[in-house]
Write a structure and sequence with these properties.
The structure is a homodimer of 399-residue chains. By secondary structure, chain A is an alpha/beta fold. Chain A is 34% helix and 19% strand. In chain A, β3, α3 and β4 form a beta-alpha-beta unit. Chain A starts with 9 loop residues before the first helix and ends with a strand. Chains A and B meet through α8 and β11 of A and α8 and β11 of B.
């Protein structure tokens, strides 16, 4: 697998800021205040370690963006100088004065102290016990409105650059999953095998990108591939541990490769040793449910209908009681993003959305059965971006 | 290194609940509502993957705890049945009705709909775009008060069981850091060497604990050891990447081993090849600053004084401008926890607190210099829990 290069750069961030400003205009807002680490990365490309120290990106409708940072991130702001010439730093959190007084000052300097402000949150979140006044208290003469709907809508429809990164992730995930698959055998533990396969695939990613590969998330690795196995797979989200694999185990995998901050989703159900009739049957039902979900994706169709299609197929097959979660979710920068393929979702499938389709069947005493694939909504239908065999014969491991 | 076993079990959680109830009594509150993943793990031992799906642990002052969960976590609640017999699940998020209506119902069933409630947050946080009404809206007849001060105070003074886990983490971190140290040489990249050393140390942890080792955090690994290197270390929080190491690099490491959810902190500054005079001098200043910080820790002394002691030493040495952050922070379940060793901190050092001491000097064009050690506040003074050579000769790597 060779890399095709960096896809998300300065031009992409300028285009995102332009779309945000259009949204501000529609809402008659004067500026956006972004407190979320992912929202800030999305709009500016500024990746930093979130801590107790608050950060806020201000995007005026009619002027250059500015950012409030702790002093220890000053050089990151300088790196972003083209985008963020007005960086303003404070010494430290908790500090001798509240850090976000710097935000109130910045908004005054920008003439926004009585403005209509859009925000992604009431204020900086509570990470590591951090406490700051909400924006409405910091700027009592401004009016603060949530722009979460607008930000989610921007992020949910991927650009050409985002899709290039997600396609590249999907290619490396196929490889990483193969490295995982071929290491699975009785006696090994999920922690060890996951780390071995992740390291092997990381070496390929680094060789493909050379020194250009950049981490965009603190503590992240380029590749995270692993699995949960055995009786605990009958729960959708077991925590896992050091249990050795045994013949007869059902194994639910994942492979995540991050390219420019983006990933596709790939999960498979593997069977260690020839399975019994109950497991073979459950595997077959699960595949049919996933096919029903993928077939239901089309531009203009409600996201809720995808979940309904899966549930209808499960009813027909008499396995609806084994469904324990919705059919999937949007993704890209985060593992889950709205909209959700869920009965209660109000959004429609739109071209450019990238959705996981992953109905699962969870059978106590038997195991969990879930494939997850990444599906792009196109102008005319859909395209499956993740590539890995899905059929029973390819996923039974001799043991 | 051999493991000494599991330290944090049901008796510890009962003791924590008892201390929380004492705090509720002092505040004249009827129950606590906990939305935070770490707060819930701390009080109940319930570890789960936080997602868009809200979770809330309710701890009445005079009755057994209860929990609101998505259906997919039902079995986790059953596992915790001794502690949480009143688990109440909702189908899914976003779902056909708001998930936290289940919380309002639970509080009604517990007779708490007009109670005085203590909470760790206004409501469930916004992870993955999740949106729920705040507690005050869900229960309009209740009065909601923050108990963040009380929770932080409980967590900041570690119990004997917590200290046993942290001491065990520190022992394995010494080993993991040694594995990292011996792999560092010109030409290798931080991503690859960090993963190799983490895997090697993980194998030792798994061998020591056998099948008993449990992951308490989704996506976490038992060992996370790595470093940042070269010019970017002149920033306290570079994001890192695939750059190959070069002779002359300053290297700032970290080693984190998680035992029962807890870790100690260990960071060292390594020098790849005999350093020049500027780097040798900066290394010496940094060591002296850290010694001043450690010496300033004593029960009853303000946390702010530790930061002041470091800054005074930096002034004496003429390097105060190269300080870019406070002297350290509490830790245990999270990488940073309050209180902070910061000029603006109002807490005192108290016996049982576990604090990192890690003043850093950041010199553009030269590099970053930071050791971090984990210091326990005792009844009479302090004890350094992390063990690794700190001196220049031990930390220069022949190259």
């Amino acid at each position: 697998v060779s890399a095709t290069g960096i896809h998300v750069g300065a031009a992409e961030h300028e285009a995102r800021l332009a779309r945000l400003r259009e949204a501000l205009e529609r809402r008659e807002l004067d500026a956006a205040c972004l407190f979320g680490t992912v929202a800030i990365f999305y709009l500016s490309g500024f990746a930093y370690q979130p801590t107790e120290r608050p950060v806020c990106l201000v995007v005026p409708r009619d002027a250059a963006p500015a950012i409030v940072l702790p002093d220890l991130e000053r050089e990151h702001a300088e790196l972003l100088a083209g985008l963020v010439p007005l960086a303003r730093t404070y010494p430290e959190y908790p500090g001798e004065r509240p850090p976000l007084e710097a935000l109130a000052e910045l908004l005054r300097d920008l003439g926004l102290e009585r403005a209509r402000l859009g925000a992604d949150a009431a204020g900086y979140g509570g990470m590591y016990g951090s406490r700051s006044a909400p924006l409405a208290e910091l700027c009592p003469d401004a009016r603060v409105h949530s722009i979460r709907d607008e930000l989610e809508r921007l992020r949910s429809r991927k650009s050409a650059a985002e899709l290039a990164a997600i396609r590249e992730s999907a290619r490396f995930e196929t490889l990483a999953h193969r490295y995982l698959h071929e290491r699975i055998r009785p006696g090994v533990s999920e922690i060890e095998v996951g780390q071995e396969a992740s390291l092997a695939a990381t070496r390929v990613v680094l060789a493909a990108f050379g020194g250009d590969y950049a981490l965009n998330q603190w503590g992240a690795a380029p590749v995270h591939v692993g699995f949960k196995a055995g009786p605990a797979t009958a729960w959708p989200h077991p925590m896992g541990g050091a249990r050795p694999l045994a013949r007869g185990d059902v194994i639910v995998t994942w492979a995540t490769v991050t390219i420019d901050g983006y990933h596709a989703e790939l999960e498979r159900t593997l069977l260690l040793g020839e399975p019994d009739a109950a497991r073979r049957e459950a595997f077959g039902h699960m595949c049919a449910l996933q096919e029903a979900g993928i077939a239901a994706i089309a531009p203009g169709r409600p996201c809720a209908e995808v979940d309904r299609a899966v549930r209808a197929e499960a009813e027909r097959r008499g396995v609806a009681a084994a469904l324990r979660h919705h059919a999937g979710h949007s993704l890209g920068l985060e593992l889950h993003e709205p909209p959700y393929l869920d009965l209660g979702e109000t959004s429609l499938c739109e071209p450019g959305m990238v959705l996981s389709v992953e109905p699962g069947l969870y059978l106590p005493g038997i195991g969990g059965f879930r494939h997850s694939d990444t599906v792009l909504v196109t102008e005319t239908g859909s395209e499956v971006l993740s590539r890995y065999p899905r059929d029973f014969d390819a996923l039974v491991i001799d043991a």
